[in-house]
Amino acid sequence: MDDLVKFLVARIMDDNHAYAYVADTVGGEALLDSHLPMLDLTEQLAYDYKAMATSDPRSAGLAYALRVLAQSYAEHPAYLQEWRP
């Protein structure tokens, strides 16, 4: 699961850089307003999972949620099919 979390955080960082580029070059404020909060929340879930003890009863549900969210990057060459929920 650690690999999935690292993958997901890396994709979020890539997306943040891409959105910043779009905003700077073509004025994509509407795109930023709608997508950046979701990226931030997904990143927060990833960090919460990393900080959570495996004995925490919420960890299984959070792991499932991260697998679902990571599916949006399923076409990325580093995505592993074993991460599918």
Automatic annotation (TrEMBL):
One Pfam family of this chain: DUF6221
Official protein name in the record: Uncharacterized protein
Organism the protein comes from: Streptomyces chattanoogensis
